[in-house]
Amino acid sequence: MQDIRLVAQKTGxxxxxxxxxxxxxxxxxxxxxxxxxxxxxxSLFRTLFDHSLSITAYQNHKKGTIAITxxxxxxxxxxxAECIRSAQSGIAxxxxxxxxxxxxKCFREGAYEADTDRFFDRIRELxxxxxxxxxxxxMEQLIASHDKTHSIYQNTNGTEFETFKGCYSxxxxxxGHEGDKATSFFDSDICTDRLDRPFIxxxxxxxxxxxxxxxxxxxxxxxxxxxxxLLTPGSLAAxxxxxxxxxxxxxxxxxxxxxxxxxxxxxxxxxxxxxxLCPNDPRIVCGxxxxxxxxxxxxxxxxxxxxxxxxxxxxxxxxxxxxARAKNGSFSMVMxxxxxxxxxxxxxxxxxxxxxxFSGGEPGVNGDFSGVAKNSFLVEDGQVKGAVSExxxxxxxxxxxxxxxxxxxxxxxxxxxxxxxxAFDGVMILGKS
Length: 433
Fold this sequence. Notes:
Layout: H1 4-18, E1 22-38, E2 41-59, E3 62-68, H2 73-88, E4 105-110, H3 116-133, E5 137-155, E6 160-178, E7 181-182, E8 186-192, H4 205-214, E9 224-231, H5 233-247, H6 250-254, E10 275-277, E11 300-304, E12 307-308, H7 315-321, E13 333-335, H8 342-347, E14 351-355, E15 357-360, E16 368-374, E17 376-380, E18 383-388, E19 392-396, H9 397-400, E20 404-413, E21 418-430
Parallel strand pairs: 4-6, 9-14
Antiparallel strand pairs: 1-2, 1-5, 2-3, 5-6, 6-7, 6-8, 9-21, 10-11, 10-13, 11-12, 14-17, 15-16, 16-19, 17-18, 19-21, 20-21
Helix pairs in contact: 1-2
């Protein structure tokens, strides 16, 4: 492993020698210890090492960037000089900037050193529990890794952030099989910094496995109707990502295509929706501690009781647009739970779907969406009738979040997000023609 503090020092010196007016750079080294399971059997164990240096420099309000994977003195000097040349050939923009001086900080997050034996035992335990509890599941692939990172961020305003972080992650891809019947693939992921609980108890692994087994027998759904969709936390995350990208992100604010552009401080969603980005929440594993612009990451609320409180803007777009920058650059979504039990949410559906996964293209600028409801179940008169296939759903994101039926008391914590189940009405559902 390299002495990355020395690399950072040499980078700063090289940038100064190259004549940088303003610059920021990050030096990082990572180690990944990875187990692979293919077809239900361990197939690989490996340890991977990587390191990188990324530099952003500004010269006469022009921006240059470069990234390299070599820490050799000559390569660092060449990268700094090339970054300045890139900036000099760019287009001037007064909005380019880096963060002012911040308090220097060293962050130590998660499980920096791996307990490899215990980690292996937990993976083997997970495989055994899946075989015992869900015999119709075929584990197509399981990738489990411990990732540790040591990084140093510095800028020419004198800020330094040093980070030591480590976590365990498990990613499963599986399908259901029984005789000549098979389901589509489904994936489920968790991230944790502890090994004190069986992995099958974390996130939504257990329910995802059970729901996939239940997909082996489907019920017919024909015709077109307007109904209710009950989104699992996993599918809710996808719809929230779509909404934030369509209505609150850098490019739609910069291009002025967001339908929320003039809605700050106004109600844009149901009053039961409060959504925040919270990398400092203790339920988020190794959350972001500083932004790409060099600011300390703070938790903040996007939607508070349905009222738009913030956009998700970088420093550059904030300077261009006049709106405030986002207080962090993560997608560590935490949505407040509701007051309805999940079982009661299902009972309250006259006709609709429980949607486990949505497969569709990017929504339109106005929020219109259309796609296939995957790993989904038909609900009629409060009863789950069975899994469905070849079922389309369509609607509008902005309208969807104003048509909340209920939000669950239960939440799913997977290490990256904390989200409830949420039901919405007014969605078009199309079965087989």
